[in-house]
Amino acid sequence: MPSTRRLARKMSQAVGELSPGQVIIELGPGTGVCTRELLLMFPDNPIIAIEMNDHFATQLRRELPGVQILQGCASQLPQLLREHGIPLENVGAVVSGLPLLSLPRDITQAIIAAVVEVLPVGRPFIQFTYSTRAFSRLELTGLNPQPGRRVWMNLPPATVMPFTRH
Predict the structure, then answer these.
(1) Which end of the chain is more exposed for a tag (fewer CB within 10 A), N or C?
(2) In this structure, are residues 80 and 70 in contact, taking their beta carbons and an 8 Å threshold?
């Protein structure tokens, strides 16, 4: 099931405060539910979405022309940003809708390492999960967990898990 707007709103709220111009990176925007919430909450911040699926990338480019859509794997995030001239020091937050628990473990760990590489110290990484217990088995080197928020009005219910880069 696609994520609900309530989940997208909780994820966007977890970003916290950003300076104008700080970039929000969204991993796995899919149909753009969270992207739309980010646009509403952060009109002064560029949003760069990393989408691997051709269909979703094409649809997002058509529906959300104000969002820069980069097509590729989130594990290649540092390279994608460099190739498009996006300075890593401008990254204000990374928001992920990727199904990290259902990906092969090595890909998941590569994605987390890529997030840590591009995220400045003190900035947030926001992920949601349907299983906090399974998520706790991942290596999250470089990230400090913050209190999560359960979103009951999502099918299935999800937990927004914020982390801070240390």
Answers:
(1) N
(2) yes
